[in-house]
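pls design
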């Protein structure tokens, strides 16, 4: 099955270079005015049959579902059951002596491209990039039309070879023959809409002379020096003239320039390569461990001293290793020879109906990932490959990338030669785009393929077969990347889903309802995905959640709750199990009488469970090298797996993980008869001098013990401190011996700098040895005060104080973002919280709530402030 059959093809091994001079090449983005119409399958065999259709405006990149929703038009029950036509018009883009090439990527899925009535390209893969020379079909006024053929009739055709196993992930197993996204076609957690349409960019390039093509870079370290290996090609060379290709590297430690002298010329095409040494480069780090320093590499093409073209990309210098025995010990990543606890989430498209967010939206979401202390994102095999903007920003922001090839669960036809050729083209294109990037850490064959087979008890080892065991690892090695190759996830050991071997998908705490201590008992080595709770989002004035809006009382609520197909439970049932464990209440009873209280406890449940599990895995004695939550953001409104909702707004779980995953953090663990241990981490590149303070309280108010210890932590280090060793006596901190009532019911751990004052600790965490507070109290009984005022340097701040513990403070101030949320207020201590807003004239007005607060406290500045 070929990926494409172009009418007049050019080698399409890479999307366009990220930068090129206008002198050699001009780009025209065909994202202007498009329109879309649907027909029955095969109703129009070509553009001649679409003149009388009912067209609606469309956006490119975009999808059929997005166009229908924007137009307020009804959406068919199955978008895959219809043909969808997109068309646009444009004027002739080329001048005398110039040639034009049409570039298209992300055509989902079986597509036919017509220019002025002539078919110039067909494609059966939404993952392939295409470049087609179109000079002979261009006119002064042009129509570009693309038909996306109905997938449903194609899936109904019986195909060979027969599948050796079946999966419930998708409804139709014949999707294994088509290279398309499974999200949108996975009924349990991503039921729709399916991605149909021009998902990727469509552009024209116009050229009038020689130009640089296929700029290939590899950056590495040789001793203390950086080495840049460069290869580039030039075509349409003139018959005469002195041709020179030079490379310049410019970055934080200086500038270097070399002329490429290894040159091979074949008629009007030239290949130039060479190596450039950068003395003592600044290194690229994950942002949690240092600065992601980068250098700009610029290739310049000159003929007789005149610059004709340039191409530029950024690189980073770093080393990456993953341990000696990944199949046994999991991934134990070391960057620049420093161990890195990899933590983050599985990346998801922002919305299946409108999957092409602008760069500012992608930046905002990735910045939120960094702000949460996460340093790795996984692009899963159920989704799609991301574009240049995503990867550029990961390089810039210091985010490690785990890249799956787009395979998941299905028995793909690896004995089909055409299919394997299409996969080889796809993989080569992907690796050309990302293999040289400093952010790339892991390349994986696909998602749950080995697990699917093993759990069915079949004697098949797909991870050792032609696709995952031969083709893909060979292409990864050929690409020159130092990223780790993993055949599938989970993977490792006799059964690939055992968490104490290799790479796991861990849901012991989660779907399998195991107690929290299972996170330690399972000895997880690395979790490529984990936890997966139905995390309840917060509401907004326009989208309330709870008794005032969409909530469990509404049948539509369940549409946003993930479930495993065929299971009699969903992930809300999983959350309810842990809610009962943590708070000692019956969830169904609370939900029946007080929906808002139920949702409040639900938010706190998943947030605290996830933070506890990550604390267990992050401690120094843990064998775990990292874990990625399933997943970053919801695809649908409601209580999905995301740490953010479908609009990208953080949920409560995000704030709890942000504290647990911060580069400088304190957290605790219950060691049973061994007491309670405080863990301190300093992942950053600078020494940390701070004071660890531990305070023990009875009745959530009376301080019965307190201790302080001065710490100096070297870069990339941590320490552990037993509470009873700190306070200097036995206090049964974990209440495990139980010789009587608990001596304390609250332990507060604070990491503080003396010059910062008490209002903003570097990090703070609490532990309840005898259980969480069950009752609510009034603000007066808690001695709670909340003052909103201007800060000395401008902006607004919130000052909180309480005589008794205020557990799980939530700050709701429309138009303002608090620097922290969901924290607890230590008895007798002041807490200052900065408020940020995009509107300098706005004044904060809202409310403070908490799990043990009866009612709410108004938040507004006093008159005259």
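designed seq:
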């Amino acid at each position: 099955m070929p990926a494409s059959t172009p009418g007049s093809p050019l080698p399409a091994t890479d999307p366009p270079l990220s930068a090129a001079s206008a002198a050699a090449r001009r780009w025209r983005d065909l994202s202007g005015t498009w329109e879309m119409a649907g027909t029955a399958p095969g109703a129009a065999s070509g553009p001649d049959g679409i003149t009388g259709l009912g067209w609606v405006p469309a956006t490119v990149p975009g999808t059929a579902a997005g166009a229908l929703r924007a137009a307020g038009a009804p959406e068919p029950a199955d978008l895959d059951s219809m043909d969808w036509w997109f068309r646009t018009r444009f004027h002739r883009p080329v001048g005398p002596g110039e040639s034009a090439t049409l570039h298209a990527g992300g055509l989902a899925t079986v597509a036919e491209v017509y220019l002025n009535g002539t078919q110039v390209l067909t494609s059966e893969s939404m993952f392939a990039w295409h470049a087609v020379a179109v000079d002979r079909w261009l006119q002064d006024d042009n129509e570009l039309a693309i038909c996306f053929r109905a997938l449903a009739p194609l899936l109904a055709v019986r195909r060979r070879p027969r599948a050796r196993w079946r999966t419930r992930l998708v409804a139709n197993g014949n999707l294994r023959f088509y290279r398309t996204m499974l999200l949108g076609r996975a009924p349990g957690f991503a039921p729709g809409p399916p991605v149909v349409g021009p998902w990727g960019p469509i552009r024209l390039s116009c050229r009038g002379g020689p130009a640089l093509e296929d700029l290939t870079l590899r950056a590495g370290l040789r001793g203390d020096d950086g080495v840049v290996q460069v290869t580039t090609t030039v075509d349409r060379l003139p018959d005469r003239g002195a041709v020179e290709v030079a490379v310049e590297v410019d970055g934080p430690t200086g500038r270097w320039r070399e002329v490429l002298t290894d040159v091979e010329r074949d008629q009007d095409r030239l290949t130039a390569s060479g190596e450039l040494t950068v003395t003592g480069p600044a290194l690229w780090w994950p942002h949690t461990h240092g600065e992601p320093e980068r250098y700009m590499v610029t290739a310049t093409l000159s003929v007789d001293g005149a610059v004709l073209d340039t191409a530029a990309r950024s690189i980073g210098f770093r080393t990456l290793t993953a341990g000696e025995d990944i199949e046994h010990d999991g991934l134990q990543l070391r960057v620049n020879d420093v161990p890195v606890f990899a933590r983050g989430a599985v990346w998801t498209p922002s919305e299946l109906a409108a999957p092409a967010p602008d760069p500012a939206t992608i930046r905002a979401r990735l910045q939120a990932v960094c702000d949460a202390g996460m340093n790795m994102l996984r692009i899963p095999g159920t989704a799609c490959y991301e574009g240049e903007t995503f990867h550029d920003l990961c390089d810039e922001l210091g985010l490690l990338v785990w890249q799956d090839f787009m395979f998941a669960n299905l028995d793909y036809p690896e004995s089909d030669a055409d299919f394997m050729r299409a996969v080889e083209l796809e993989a080569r294109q992907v690796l050309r785009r990302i293999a040289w990037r400093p952010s790339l850490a892991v390349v994986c064959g696909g998602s749950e393929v080995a697990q699917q087979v093993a759990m069915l008890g079949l004697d098949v080892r797909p991870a050792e077969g032609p696709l995952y065991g031969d083709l893909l690892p060979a292409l990864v090695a050929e690409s020159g990347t130092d990223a780790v190759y993993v055949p599938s996830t989970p993977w490792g050991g006799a059964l690939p889903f055992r968490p104490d071997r290799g790479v796991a998908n861990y849901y012991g705490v989660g779907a399998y309802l195991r107690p929290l201590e299972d996170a330690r008992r399972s000895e997880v080595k690395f979790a490529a995905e984990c936890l997966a709770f139905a995390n309840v989002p917060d509401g907004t004035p326009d989208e309330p959640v709870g008794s005032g809006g969409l909530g469990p009382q509404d049948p539509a609520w369940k549409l946003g709750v993930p479930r495993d197909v065929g299971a009699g439970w969903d992930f809300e049932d999983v959350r309810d199990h842990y809610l009962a464990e943590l708070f000692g209440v019956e969830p169904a009873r609370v939900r029946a009488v007080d929906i808002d209280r139920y949702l409040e406890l639900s938010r706190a449940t998943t947030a605290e469970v996830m933070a506890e599990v990550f604390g267990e895995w992050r401690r120094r004695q843990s064998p775990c090298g990292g874990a990625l939550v399933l997943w970053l953001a919801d695809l649908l409104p409601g209580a999905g797996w995301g740490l953010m909702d479908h609009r990208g707004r953080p949920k409560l779980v995000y704030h709890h993980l942000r504290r647990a995953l911060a580069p400088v953090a304190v957290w605790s663990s219950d060691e049973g008869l061994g007491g309670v241990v405080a863990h301190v981490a300093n992942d950053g590149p600078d020494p940390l001098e701070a004071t660890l303070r531990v305070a023990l309280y009875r009745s959530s108010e009376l301080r019965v013990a307190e201790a302080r210890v001065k710490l100096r932590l070297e870069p990339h280090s941590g320490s552990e401190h037993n509470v009873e060793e700190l306070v200097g006596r036995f206090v049964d901190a974990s209440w495990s011996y139980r010789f009587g009532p608990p001596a304390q019911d609250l332990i507060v751990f604070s990491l503080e700098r003396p010059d910062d004052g008490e209002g903003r600790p570097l990090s703070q965490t609490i532990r309840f040895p005898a259980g969480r507070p069950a009752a609510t109290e009034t603000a007066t009984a808690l001695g709670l005060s909340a003052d909103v005022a201007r800060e000395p340097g401008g902006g607004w701040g919130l000052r909180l104080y309480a005589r008794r513990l205020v557990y799980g403070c939530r700050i709701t101030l429309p138009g303002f973002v608090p620097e922290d949320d969901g924290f607890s207020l230590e008895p007798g201590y002041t807490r200052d919280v900065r408020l940020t807003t995009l509107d300098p004239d706005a004044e904060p007005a809202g409310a403070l709530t908490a799990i043990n607060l009866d009612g709410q406290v108004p938040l507004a500045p006093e008159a005259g402030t």
